[in-house]
Write a structure and sequence with these properties.
alpha+beta; five-stranded antiparallel β-sheet; two-stranded antiparallel ribbon; 56% helix
Length: 362
């Protein structure tokens, strides 16, 4: 569900067609975690002698981790918006996506799908696929854990060991290509873009949209000025003969000349303003955003390094706390034994006060 601000940012969505979206799988991700990791979590916690090492909620544990994502999302699409001016092509695309997804979990038993939906309320039909990669056989921690590369390598031993994702992805794309060929459609290789994520893409598009809006108020530089009259002159073509020929010049009245001069001056001013805006405000704004993104990226790297060091320090302190806890336990045990001995001593000698005084003095 989007708020008004998010709807404005995603103006490409046609909400009147949202009812055409197809939900192929819908499950609460937390329920999936309980089903997939509940037993392993219970076994792990039973083995722990220290309560601080137990994990109460595996989903929350992964969510707070910096190293692992709780899930993976992929977007699968065939064709582009030009292809989908035809309603028939939209049906074909939907059929291909549904067929491809139908056996996805059979092909990928370690990728547990909790959400799959085909969006038909945008320019191009596309499938959002969300799943949790489950790997097993761990000696440390839970026996089953969230790990993408390990999950796909365990389900398919033929994958490239150093680049398993690329190999796995190509196999899935090949299945899509086969479904295209079954319908007489050839795959076209179009490459990729340099955007890091969808937010960077949207920011660039916003900037381009601002420039396009500005262009609308500018005169077309290629537009020709409509002259009313071409200049001609009388040229002698023979004895007592002449004809009018165009000189290539144009004749303007004083009024037309003044009007044209004003338009040219206005166009020059507007063009200068446009170039100034294009070269300063808008582009600088985008460049500034890129620089800021680079600075923030460096800052994140620094913070991650500091976080790594702090984690190390935290582990060291946890070790010291554990040692102190053991020392306290030993001291408590010694105190209990001393108290017991004193109690027995007092009980034994209080019947004979004189003997008790002698022993106590000693």
């Amino acid at each position: 569900e989007m708020n008004e601000q998010e709807k404005k940012r995603n103006s490409h969505i046609d909400y009147s067609r949202s009812s055409e979206n197809k939900y192929l799988a819908r499950e609460n991700i937390r329920e999936l975690y309980k089903r997939e990791f509940g037993e392993s979590l219970e076994i792990y916690n039973k083995k722990q002698t220290r309560s601080d090492r137990k994990i109460n909620n595996y989903f929350n544990h992964i969510e707070s981790s910096k190293k692992t994502a709780t899930q993976q999302e992929m977007i699968i699409q065939v064709g582009d918006k030009v292809d989908f001016s035809s309603a028939e092509n939209r049906k074909v695309a939907n059929a291909i996506l549904e067929e491809w997804f139908q056996d996805f979990e059979k092909r990928n038993p370690n990728l547990k799908v909790y959400n799959a939906v085909i969006h038909n309320d945008e320019a191009s039909p596309h499938l959002h696929l969300n799943f949790v990669p489950v790997a097993s056989g761990y000696k440390r921690g839970l026996e089953k854990q969230v790990a993408f590369d390990r999950a796909i390598k365990q389900q398919d031993s033929t994958l490239n060991k150093t680049r398993p994702f690329d190999d796995w992805r190509e196999k899935e794309v090949q299945l899509l290509e086969n479904k295209l060929k079954e319908r007489g459609i050839e795959r076209k290789f179009v490459g990729t873009n340099d955007y890091k994520d969808v937010n960077e893409y949207k920011e660039k598009k916003d900037l381009e949209r601002e420039i396009e809006e500005l262009k609308k108020v500018l005169p077309d530089e290629q537009e020709r000025i409509p002259f009313l009259k071409k200049e001609t002159e009388s040229v002698k073509t023979g004895f007592m003969k002449s004809e009018e020929k165009e000189t290539g010049n144009y004749v303007l009245s004083a009024e037309q000349y003044n009007s044209m001069t004003e338009q040219i001056h206005s166009a020059i001013v507007i063009k200068k303003d446009y170039k100034r805006l294009k070269s300063t405000d808008l582009n600088k704004k985008y460049e500034k955003m890129l620089k800021m993104a680079h600075i923030l990226s460096k800052r994140v790297e620094t913070l991650e390094t500091e976080n790594h060091m702090l984690k190390g320090e935290n582990l060291r302190l946890e070790g010291q706390v554990y040692t102190l806890e053991q020392t306290v336990k030993d001291l408590k045990r010694e105190i209990a034994q001393t108290y017991k001995a004193v109690k027995e001593f007092v009980i034994e000698y209080t019947s004979d006060l004189k003997a008790f005084k002698t022993v106590f003095k000693g």
